[in-house]
Amino acid sequence: MSQMNANLSRRTFISTMGVLGAGLALSACGSSSTSGAAAESSPASGDKGLEVDTIHWGRANSGNIFVTLGQKKGYFADEGLTVVEDPVQSSTDALTALSTGAVDVTSNQGTSGPLQQIAAGQDFTIVGGYMLQGMYLIAKKGTTWNGVGDLVGKRISHSAPQIPVCYAMLQAGYDPTKDVTWVSTNTSADRYAAVVSGEADYGYMSGDMLYTVNNSPDVDIVVYADELMPTYGCCRMNMRTQFVKDNPKTVKALMRALVRSNAYFHANLDECVEILAKELNTDQDYVAAYLKNEHYIPDTDPVKHQVEQTWEVMKQIGLVDADAAAKVKLEDHIDTSFYEEALNEISQEYADDYPEWWKSRKEFFQEHDA
Questions:
Q1: Do domains 11-26+135-228 and 31-132+234-368 have the same CATH topology?
Q2: pLDDT digit string (tens) for 213-260?
Q3: 38 DSSP assignment
Q4: DSSP assignment, residue 179?
Q5: Neighbours of 149 (CB within 10 A)
Q6: Can you list the alpha helix ranges (DSSP code H) found in the chain?
Q7: What are the domain boundaries of the chain?
Q8: Model confidence over 140-175: pLDDT tens digits?
Q9: Could you tell me the CATH superfamily of domain 11-26+135-228?
Q10: Cα separation of 318 and 153, whole Å?
């Protein structure tokens, strides 16, 4: 991969980002009075018959609206669960915490990262999802977008080649490992800075930068990632396979609560903006910029077929070693049964609350998982 270690110089710019973009992201960091620990056993686990009743969730800086709703609306309590949110500062930290048992669930760490870990020998299982889509490409203001061919010969800023971009280029007959230059950057603030300074032509950005981007005099969004790869499943819900095998009732109870959160979110978006802004101790406009963006779609569905599609792209562009990938039976690391059972049960128990939503979710599952 060309220029994967390109160094960007942006000290002056980053110092000004503290108030507008990166500072907002950092101010959104959650806090927890409980440090990470493995799930705790309870002899009775209330009256629900759960194997364990406490789950530790790796909490990323932008939070997880479904977990927040599960806490605030009592959905976890209804299932006999206590969910402890343990802050993690990066995807690496989150997946390390998951592998060591410091947390039991991660959800905001993309799809390719966990799949790389699986290819390297980590025994993780994808049981659900968080973000279906939400990423996008920025370029200097006034840049026109004519299609994926515009990327050929250009520099794209991110820490690694990104699946929706690579997928679209492969579909169009281009080689994303040769026809573009990937400029290595660590954060979305760095990617924004790289575009503004001219060190990259495009930056592949996360949802929590939408407020900054929307108010920027320097850049425009030229294309959303879901326009390159529809419903690509950008953040999967990962657990250790042994935890899933040992605690099936607990895992299904967790999914039941999250399915309820998903439905509530869909029906009460304005309230959810207020709830998450308060939870993250940040401005409502900042949260609304991503939660209310039509391309930013949280959903608990595992989207198995999209994960499989991502895996194939990763093999084509060398994000996973071909020999290592050949030894992995991916279907052993995706379990859609917990989500499917939770959706069927909750949609029956609360059939009158969101009838059209339940119908749409079942149809979506048949298309993307069955």
A1: yes
A2: 999 999 999 999 999 999 999 999 999 999 999 999 999 999 999 999
A3: P
A4: S
A5: 13
A6: 11-20, 22-27, 65-72, 75-78, 91-100, 112-119, 163-171, 188-197, 210-214, 225-228, 241-246, 248-267, 269-280, 284-291, 304-317, 322-326, 337-349, 355-368
A7: 11-26+135-228, 31-132+234-368
A8: 999 999 999 999 999 999 988 999 999 999 999 999
A9: Periplasmic binding protein-like II (3.40.190.10)
A10: 20
Interatomic CA distance for residues 199 and 125, integer angstroms = 38
Number of H helices, E strands in the chain: 18, 11
What b/e readout covers 186-201, taking b as 16+ CB neighbours within 10 angstroms?
A: ebbbbbbbbbbeebbb
Torsion angle of C-alpha atoms 260, 30, 50, 360, degrees rounded to 10: 20
Q: State which H helix or E strand residue 126 sits in.
A: strand 124-129
The C-alpha atoms of residue 291 and residue 296 are separated, in whole angstroms, by 6
CA distance 111 to 272: 25
The answer as to CATH 3.40.190.10 being correct for domain 31-132+234-368 is yes
Cα atoms found within 13 Å of the Cα of residue 200, Cβ hemisphere only:
34
The residue with tokens 């419903």 is: 231
Phi-psi region of 329 (alpha: psi -120 to 50; beta: other; left: phi over 0): beta
Distance CA 114, CA 106 (A): 10
DSSP character for 21?
S
Burial letters 318-331, b for 16+ CB under 10 A, else e: ebbeeeebeebebe
DSSP, collapsed to helix, strand or coil, labels residue 346 as helix
Higher pLDDT, 50 or 39: 50
What predicted TM-score, i.e. pTM, was given to this entire model?
0.85
Please tell me the distance from the alpha carbon of residue 360 to that of residue 42, in angstroms, as a whole number: 37
Tokens for 178? 């040769």
> CA-CA distance, 119 to 337, in Å (whole number)?
22
Q: Give Cα 98 distance to the centre of its chain.
A: 15
Distance CA 95, CA 93 (A): 6
Q: Tell me the backbone φ, ψ of residue 40, rounded to 5 degrees.
A: -95, 135
Q: From CA 88, how far away is CA 338, in angstroms rounded?
A: 25
**Cβ pair 224, 135 in contact under 8 A:** yes
Query: Measured between alpha carbons, how far is residue 97 from residues 252, 267, 319 in Å?
Result: 22, 33, 22
